[in-house]
Amino acid sequence: MKTLKDVISLKFKTSESEGVIFHGEGQQGDYVTLELKKAKLVLHLNLGSNQLGSIYGHTSVMAGSLLDDHHWHSVVIERHGRNINLTLDRNTQHFRTNGEFDYLDLDYEITFGGMPFSGKPSSSSRKNFKGCMESINYNGNNITDLAKRKKLEPSNMGNLSFSCMEPHTVPVFFNATSYLEVPGRPSQDLFSVSFLFRTWNPNGLLLFSTFADDLGNVEIDVTEGKVSVHVNVTQVKKNRIDISS
């Protein structure tokens, strides 16, 4: 396929921070990749480079953050030559690709949800997408519908299900005055805790626990947007440990 215009749209939701949403490449060195990196959306596009190195076509644009929140996010990519509109959840960025070429020349298949192993370093270091997609539309083709009716050849690799599984996690919402108290475990010499959290507030206490027999306490809080861990041990010379990240 050699196209001057492209319109690609889809919706996704995931709790993973990394994953290839779609990918296509050609023998001329052209490629297009949409992926999640550190829970941000990244579009890589190359309409062609030359072997002399005087024309360098690679372009990368980043959008959004915290997209691993298991909520639906919509993406629309509109391309006319080197002019691109990238829209994520109704916020649009306009940019021009590097290089001098206007056509996207893809002569392999386009893959959604991952990329085939091509032997190139870029393909081995990228994770496949894990989550749900819907309303996939590529240049007027309803990919989701075609895949469901098995009208694509080859249609899918691996385990695809045409339903969206909800995660089994149960979130807890805290207001400024609520807290959750659970019983401690006496006679244990190991203290271990893990949790996920999300907040717009720069300050707040996440966890507090007092050790038995007046041995001290541990506190985890958010201070000015940073997570801090404070461990107080009463019977040691260096009795306080502070870690911030």
UniProtKB/TrEMBL annotation:
CDD domains documented for this protein: LamG (cd00110)
Recorded coiled-coil stretches: none
The organism's place on the tree of life at top rank: Eukaryota
Position of the signal peptide: none
Laminin G domain mapped to chain residues: 1-164
Alphabetical list of PANTHER family matching this protein: CONTACTIN-ASSOCIATED PROTEIN-LIKE 2 (PTHR15036:SF33), PIKACHURIN-LIKE PROTEIN (PTHR15036)
Protein name: CNTP2 protein
Organism annotation: Rhinopomastus cyanomelas
